[in-house]
Amino acid sequence: MKFLALSLLCLVAVACARHITLEDVIDLEKNSAYGYISRFGIPLAEKVRKAEEEAQRNPGRIIGGSHAVLGQFPYQVGLLTELPNGLSLASAVLVSPTRVLTAAHNLDDGVAFVTRINVVLGSITIFTGGTRVVSTDFILHENWTPSLIRNDVAMINLPSAVSISNILAPIALPSGNQLDEDFAGDIAIASGYGLTSDLGGIPANQQLSFVDLPVITNDECAAVYRSAIIQPSNVCTSGAGNKNICTGDSGGPLAVVRNNNPLLIGITSFGSGSCESSMPSGFARVTYFIDWINNHL
C-alpha cells in the first residue's frame, strides 16, 4: 500500500480507513465507458492473479498497509468476469443472500458483453479463498448509457442463497427517512481490489483495501466533471488529500454508518484519469435507484 502524508497503520476501519491508490475507474477524458473491460479490467485481473501467486510463494514480502481484514467488510464481493480474450476483475456488493449489486459497465461496456461471472464472497483475495459461485443470470439497468456513464447499475442473481456468517453478510439498503438524505458532509468508506499506485505493478501483499472519503454535493462535483455527467442519479466524494477509488473498486460499495451499521449509499462508477489526483469520484446513488434495486431483489 502506498502511503502519502501519513505512514501510521490504522487498526480501526471506520475511524482510520485510508488511501486506496488503485488504477482509473473510467477515463473521463473520453467521457465514456466504451472499451473499459479490455482496457482496464482484463489487464488488472492478470496483474492481481500474479501478485496473489507471488504472495503464496514468498509470504515474507507481505508488509503493512491499509488492507482489510477478513470479516471487516462482509458485504464486499469480487467479480472475475469471463470474456473470449480473458478474465476481467471488478468489485460488487452483496445486498441479499441471493443478489449482488455492481456497476453496469463491468458487464457491458458498450464493446464487450460478459456472459459468465465468477462471484467471490467472504474473501480478502479475489483469486483464492472465500465462497465462489458462478452466475450467468444478471440484469443491466434498462437505461444504462455507456457514452454518458449514466444509470450505471446491474444486479447479479446467485443460483442459490449464500450462507450468512460473520465474514459474509448483506449490507443494509436505505429506507424510510434515509431515502431523503443526500449524505453530503458524511465520511463514507469505499472498498475494493486493485493496484497500489499509479505507477508500477501490484505487490505480493495486494488484497482488499479501503479508504475513507468525504461525500460532497453534486454541485461541487459538477463544477469539475460538468452537468452532462453529474446527474441526480450520482453521489460524489472528494479526492482531497489524494485519496480516491480506481479500477479494482469498480462496481464496489460506498457506505456510511447509520445506527452503528454500514449503509450502502453508492456503487463505484467513475473517477479521474489518475487515482492519485485530488479530483472527485462518482458513484451511482443508491437512493435514486432504490425502487429498481428493490424490484430486482
From TrEMBL:
* Biological process terms in GO annotation: proteolysis
Q: Which CDD domains match?
A: Tryp_SPc
Task: Name the SMART domains for this protein.
Answer: Tryp_SPc
Signal peptide interval: 1-17
Q: What Gene3D superfamilies does UniProt report for this protein, alphabetically?
A: Trypsin-like serine proteases
Does this entry carry the keyword Iron-sulfur? no
Per UniProt, residues of the Peptidase S1 domain are 62-297
Q: Which PANTHER family match?
A: FI18310P1-RELATED (PTHR24276:SF98), POLYSERASE-RELATED (PTHR24276)
What family does the database annotate?
Answer: Belongs to the peptidase S1 family.
Q: What's the name of the protein? A: Peptidase S1 domain-containing protein
